[in-house]
Each structure stands twice: as C-alpha cells, then as structure tokens.
C-alpha cells in the first residue's frame, strides 16, 4: 500500500494538471465512465491505495479495457505494451500459487480439470476485478467484509465457482 501511495504522489507531481485530471481525460472519459469518486490522502493527493469508488459496471469496463489489450471501442486508451507488462509475472509472492505483475495479482484457477490463468485487482473487503482471458470474461465482486480474514478467499471461491459454470 505504501508503495502505491508513493507512486500516486509521484504521478500527481509529474503529470501536467495532476493525476486526477490526467485520469479523467486519458482513462475515464475514453471508457465513458463519469460515475467515479476518488478519495484523497491527507496531503490532498488522489489516493491510489484504495477507497476509489465507481459502480460494478465501471470496474467491469476497466477490466474489459485490459482484456481488449488497452482498446475501448477501437480506440487505444492504454498502451498494449503496458497491458502485457502489467499482467505478466514479475514477483513470486508468499502466497502459494500466487504471483504479482504490475499492480495485478496472477493465479491459476483449476476447475473440473481445466486450468484458467486469472489476473486480478484486489481490494479490502473482498473487492476484486478478475480477468480470465481464456473465457473472455471479467468478474467484478463488490464486497464489504473489511478487515476480515476470509474476504479474499471467499471472493476467489465465488470467481472460481463462476468459471466452473461458464
């Protein structure tokens, strides 16, 4: 969390008009999401560590943007190179079978003998955006089990169950 807060602060200071305006113009407007709300650090910087709010559809659109290789309705929004880089293995984690890309977790789901590579964003409370490229599927889970031990495991079980039904 501290690292991603620092990253957000660096971006905010480096981008003309700051991170909030940049994200509005370069990400949210192109994917037609005007239903979002930032939280801010005590220094007034858009928080990149959590409490970002949008609808389930807004999160799903973001996931679909990644599944589309960074394109939205044929328009390039995020570079394909960054999509590939961020969704690729970079770090082995302490969690069995889980690795980390660039702000995306990577885990294989095994369902009925089939293995599905899954990349996902993960937030407190069990909030997740799962990408399953092989199934051309985005799964969004909005939850509020904040600070509980079971939240992440439960969200993953729900996503795996969905994959088994596809």
Radius of gyration: 16 Å
- Helical content class: 25-40%
Shape: globular
Q: What structural class do you assign from the helix and strand content?
A: alpha+beta
Total count of helical runs of at least 4 residues? 5
Content of β-strand: 15-25%
Q: Can you tell me the residue ranges where pLDDT is under 50 for at least 5 consecutive residues?
A: none
Helices and strands, in order, run as HHEEHEEHEEEEEEH
Please describe the structure with a list of short key phrases separated by commas or semicolons.
alpha+beta, 166 residues, six-stranded antiparallel beta sheet, 10 strands, 5 helices, two-stranded antiparallel ribbon, 25% strand
What is the element layout, followed by pairings?
Layout (H helix, E strand, L loop, with lengths): L1 H13 L3 H11 L7 E2 L15 E2 L1 H12 L3 E2 L2 E2 L3 H7 L4 E2 L5 E3 L4 E7 L2 E10 L3 E6 L4 E5 L9 H15 L1
Antiparallel strand pairs: 1-2, 3-4, 5-6, 6-7, 7-8, 8-9, 9-10
Give a written overview of the molecule:
- It is a single chain.
- With 166 residues, the protein is of the alpha+beta class.
- It has helices at 2-14, 18-28, 56-67, 80-86, 151-165, and strands at 36-37, 53-54, 71-72, 75-76, 91-92, 98-100, 105-111, 114-123, 127-132, 137-141.
- It has a six-stranded antiparallel β-sheet, sandwiched between helices. A two-stranded antiparallel sheet has the order 1-2. Strands 3-4 form a two-stranded antiparallel ribbon.
- It starts with a helix and ends with a helix.
- 21% of the residues are buried.
- The mean pLDDT is 92.
């Amino acid at each position: 969390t501290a690292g991603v807060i620092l990253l957000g602060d660096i971006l905010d200071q480096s981008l003309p008009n700051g991170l909030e305006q940049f994200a509005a113009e370069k990400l949210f407007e192109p994917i037609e999401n005007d239903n979002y709300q930032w939280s801010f650090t005590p220094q007034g910087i858009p928080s990149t560590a959590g409490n970002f709010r949008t609808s389930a559809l807004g999160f799903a659109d973001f996931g679909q943007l990644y599944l589309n290789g960074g394109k939205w309705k044929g328009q390039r929004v995020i570079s394909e190179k960054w999509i590939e880089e961020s969704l690729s293995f970079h770090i082995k984690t302490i969690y069995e079978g889980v690795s980390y890309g660039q702000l995306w977790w990577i885990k294989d789901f095994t369902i009925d003998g089939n293995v599905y590579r899954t990349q996902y964003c993960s937030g407190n409370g069990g909030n997740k955006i799962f990408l399953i490229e092989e199934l051309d599927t985005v799964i969004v889970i909005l939850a509020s089990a904040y600070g509980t031990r079971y939240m992440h495991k439960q969200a993953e079980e729900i996503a795996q169950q969905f994959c088994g039904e596809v």
